[in-house]
Every structure is written in C-alpha cells, then in structure tokens.
Write a structure and sequence with these properties.
Radius of gyration: 23 Å
Structural class: alpha/beta
Shape: globular
Number of strands: 20
Bound molecules: nicotinamide-adenine-dinucleotide, 4-oxobutanoic acid
Largest sheet: 7 strands, mixed
Helix content: 25-40%
Strand order of the largest sheet: 12-13-14-11-10-16-17
C-alpha cells in the first residue's frame, strides 16, 4: 500500500527523494516545506518538500547525466520499463485514487477513472516506443541517398496542473521516456503527493536513477519555473496549465530557444442543432463534459448554445438532472461532485454568476457557494438567457456552471463559437452528416466531439489552437513532441 496513513507519505517522500538526485534530507532546510491541503476540509494532509532553484538545478544535472546513457537504451527496454510502471500503477489504483481525492477533491470513483486514464498513457507509449521509424526519401540530386532518424530532444522540463494530478504527468512522461528523453517534472503545488507516489512507482518499476525526476514547490513555483525554463541543459518544455502562465513560461523559454508544447486553457462551445431527435442524449453529453471534475477540466463546455426550437425543453431536462447531483466530500458515499480546488476558485465562479445575472441571465438552479459544506463547495448551476457581453462568454469559468445561450442559424452559432481567443475543444449535436462536417471544419478548435461529450482518449490527439496552445499529446503524434528529426544525406551513391 502506498498510503493509508499520513506516516506512509513520509516514507514515500524519503524514498523518492533519495533516488531522485541523491540529495539526503540532511542537506536541506525542512522548515520551509509546503503544506498539502485537503480542499474538502481545509485540513493539512501532509508536508511536502519545498524545492528551490538550486534543487532544480541538481535535478537537471541528474537528468542530464542520465540522458547520456538512457538515450541509448534499446527501444524494447524502454517499452518494458513503461509497461512495468503502468502495471504498478494499476496494482496500486485505489491508493493513488485516495491521494487524488484527498488532494484534488474529486469523488473517489472519478479519481479511480483518472488513475486508469493516467496508466493508459504509459501503456500506449510502451507500445509506440518500438516503432520510432525514420524515412528513406526519394531525392532530387542524382547519386544522393537521404534518410531520417528520430532522436530524443534531450532533457525535458514538464509542468502540469492540479486538475488531473496523475494523468497530465503520465501524458508527458510516457512519450518522453519512449522517445529516449529524461525529465524533470514540476508537480502542481496543490497535488504533490500524487506526483510523488507516481515517481515512487517509477522507481519500483526499475526506471533508472536520474531518468525521471520531480520537483515539488508551492511558494517557490516561480523560481523553480525560471530555473527550468532558462537552464541551457533543458532542451524542451512541455507545459499544461492556464494561458496566462503559458505566456510567461514561453517568454522565459525563448531565452535559450527551447522546443515547447503548450496545452492551455479552453472555453469550449457545445452546440445543439434543431435537427436532433434525441434531446436526452445531448443533455447527458452536456453533463459529461460540463460537470467532469466539477467543471475544472480544460475541455469542459463553457458556452452551451441550444437552437431556439429546443431551448426550453433542453433547459428543463438539464435542470432536472443537475438537481439530482449530490455535492460533498469526495470520499463520501454517493457524492457525485466534490469541492473546487480552493476558495478563490469558488469565488471566481460566484463572480461569473454574479456578472451574468447583473447583465440579464437567470439562475435556473444553483448559483451559490454551499456555506454549510465549506468555502470550496459550489452549487451545480444552470444559467439561462446568456449573452455575449457576459464574462463566461470569453473567460473559462472552471467551475460547475452550465451557461445556456440560444441561437437561430448555423452561420450565427459558428461565428459566436469562434468569437473567442482560445480554441481547445468544441462539441456539436446534429443528425445531419453534411452539417456535421461543415461545422466541425469551420470551428477554430483542436478537437471536435460530434454527438458525444467526451473527446478524451489515449489514442486520439489532444491539443488546441489559438491561445489554447500547440502541440499534441497522446496518440501517435504525442511522441513527436519529444523527438528531433535528423536528416542524413549520403553523396556519391552511384
Ligand atoms: N489544454 C490542456 O490539455 C489542459 C489540461 C489541463 C488543464 N489545462 C488548463 O490549466 C488551467 C488550470 O490549471 P492551473 O490553475 O493549475 O493552471 P496554472 O497555469 O496556474 O498552473 C499550471 C502549472 O504551472 C505552474 N506554474 C504557475 N506559475 C508558474 C511559474 N511562474 N513558473 C512555473 N510554473 C508555474 C503551477 O504550479 C502548475 O504546476 C486551466 O486554464 C485549464 O484549462 C489545460
Ligand atoms: O483538463 C484537461 C485534460 C482532461 C482530459 O485529458 O480529458
């Protein structure tokens, strides 16, 4: 068992500190270590090391030393290591899910689903590792032969958010290791224990020392980020998080012209056309995407556009379903939706609701912080009569608010959906195949769900356009983010 009592976290922490870069706890001033907080209760779960720029540099040096050996590891050996890590994660599924529920707040069953999702990236990239083929290329110069090989980019810095404490990490480390890179993962300050437990399992899976390193930080986040994004030994930064922080890190990473991939915020439109027969399936899909992670998912529907002819009925059925949700601490039986990550997150949701209602929106259900449960709990909310001057139309709410807009024509709704700086996911419900293609192709996003509320699948490329970032994770494309293509030209080959 990886956890059960607070004591066990400490042993995880000590084990894993010693294998990361041989820094013993005596070297460090532990007085400034960070508290990990349970968002459901506000209680301290445990204490985690607060690393700084010097620690980060040591981790980078460890990853750099390991890279010179690991890059030559045969691809089938890389595959075997990733597979073993996947297997250990699945064997410890419930323990990891406990950590996720504890630190992030999501209900335990949702946390279990995340652990499976997280493991799937390691399984997937264990299968991609043996297939890192190059090309032989027909040439225009007589007597030449041209071929390409794929090489690992080098030491990678990975920065991930708290909303998927396990899956966002494995979605980056899986392809990095498959490609032959070594990594330093800066875990989210809010959910460090899940990251640490994953690293401990990597160690137990036999992943060589220095190949996978983690740095935990909360107060020192900016200095750790500065060290990672400017150190010349780091050749690639892969970041998942907000567009605001993404822009900052991109500026920093430009100082040494690092390769970057950026998975940033979204504001997904969900469009229900008049040609559908089955409103209930569309309602179910809205619930799946809007309220996943209690609305704290980058691909959550943020703007729900319902054709005028279905608007009233759709709103009625959605409200009935949302009123059945059971909000509470994630470990409690039958709870469907947990707390938000902090009280500031809940306040932001309250501000979005207040802004909308001050401009004419009506609250069909919910709308308030649930004070008796605590400052992080927010009522699942449905808003009607939304308009495009409201903050929800242009800002990601990242909370449990389903905002219903009405539209008349296909052209109008495409324009409204695209009237946004970000473009991660979009969803459309239509029974008209021509319209499906027309609209899917017109939407300025990286992913379109058609007649489904879920686009997340290890085998499907995940990523955005516009200010949602660039690069793709998962799928056959995910590994390319961690590879350089080298061209070898042979002359005189007559
Ligand atoms: N596109 C995607 O795949 C995807 C996936 C999950 C979340 N997200 C987005 O992430 C956001 C929510 O996550 P969040 O609140 O943790 O985002 P955030 O940008 O605040 O933090 C993301 C990560 O960056 C770190 N960070 C913050 N400031 C930093 C700095 N100065 N230097 C280095 N690291 C720094 C945080 O500690 C965390 O690890 C939402 O906008 C969501 O849409 C996007
Ligand atoms: O929050 C964004 C990532 C969630 C997902 O991969 O579906």
């Amino acid at each position: 068992m990886l956890c059960q009592r607070r004591m066990d976290f400490c042993s995880v922490r000590e084990n894993f500190r010693s294998y990361r870069w041989d820094q013993s706890s005596e070297d460090r001033d532990l007085s400034s270590d960070q508290e990990d907080i349970d968002p459901a209760t506000g209680n301290v779960i445990g204490i985690c090391p607060e690393f700084d720029a010097l620690d980060t540099t040591k981790a980078i040096n460890a990853a750099s030393d390991a890279f010179s050996v690991y890059r030559h590891t045969p691809v089938r050996e890389r595959a075997r290591l990733l597979r073993q890590w996947n297997d250990l994660i699945l064997q410890n599924l419930d323990d990891l899910a406990i950590l996720i529920t504890w630190e992030n707040g999501k209900p335990f069953t949702e946390a279990q689903a995340e652990v499976k999702y997280a493991a799937a990236f390691l399984e997937w990239f264990s299968e991609e590792a043996p297939r890192l083929y190059g090309d032989t290329i027909p040439v225009s110069v007589q007597g030449n032969r041209v071929l390409t090989i794929k090489e690992p980019v080098g030491v990678c810095g990975l920065v991930t958010p708290w909303n998927f404490p396990a899956a966002m990490i494995t979605r980056k480390i899986g392809p990095a290791l498959a490609a032959g890179c070594t990594v330093i993962a800066k875990s989210p300050g809010e959910t460090p224990f899940t990251a640490n437990a994953l690293m401990e399992l990597a160690h137990r899976a036999g992943i060589p020392k220095g190949v996978v390193n983690t740095v935990t930080a909360l107060a020192n986040t900016a200095e750790v980020g500065q060290a990672l994004t400017t150190h010349p030994e780091i050749k690639k930064i892969s970041f998942t998080g907000s567009t605001r922080v993404g822009k900052l890190l991109m500026r920093q990473a430009s100082s040494t012209v690092k390769r970057v991939s950026w998975e940033l915020g979204g504001n997904a439109p969900f469009i229900v056309f008049d040609d559908i027969d089955d409103i209930d399936t569309a309602v179910t899909a809205v619930i799946a995407t809007k309220f996943r992670g209690n609305g704290q998912t980058c691909v959550c529907a943020n703007r729900i556009y319902i054709h005028r002819s279905h608007y009233k009925e759709f709103a009625k059925r959605l409200v009935e379903r949302v009123r059945d949700f059971k909000v509470g601490p994630g470990f409690r039986q039958k709870v469907t939706h947990g707390p938000l990550i902090h009280d500031t997150a809940a306040q932001k949701v309250a501000e979005h609701v207040a802004d909308a209602t001050s401009k004419g929106a009506s609250v069909l259900t919910g709308g308030n912080i649930i004070a008796e449960l605590g400052p992080t709990f927010f009522e699942p909310t449905v808003l009607a009569n939304m308009s495009h001057d409201m903050r929800i139309a242009s800002e990601e709410t990242f909370g449990p608010v389903a905002a219903l807009f009405s539209f008349e024509s296909e052209e109008e709704v495409i324009n409204l959906a695209n009237r946004c700086d970000v473009g991660l996911a979009a969803y459309i419900f239509s029974d008209n195949i021509k319209r499906v293609f027309r609209v899917a192709e017109a939407l300025e996003v990286g992913m379109v769900g058609v007649n489904t509320g879920s686009v997340s699948d290890v085998s499907a490329p995940f990523g955005g356009v516009k200010q949602s970032g660039f690069g793709r994770e998962g799928s056959k494309y995910g590994i390319e983010e961690f590879q350089n293509v080298k061209t070898i030209t042979l002359g005189g080959m007559f």
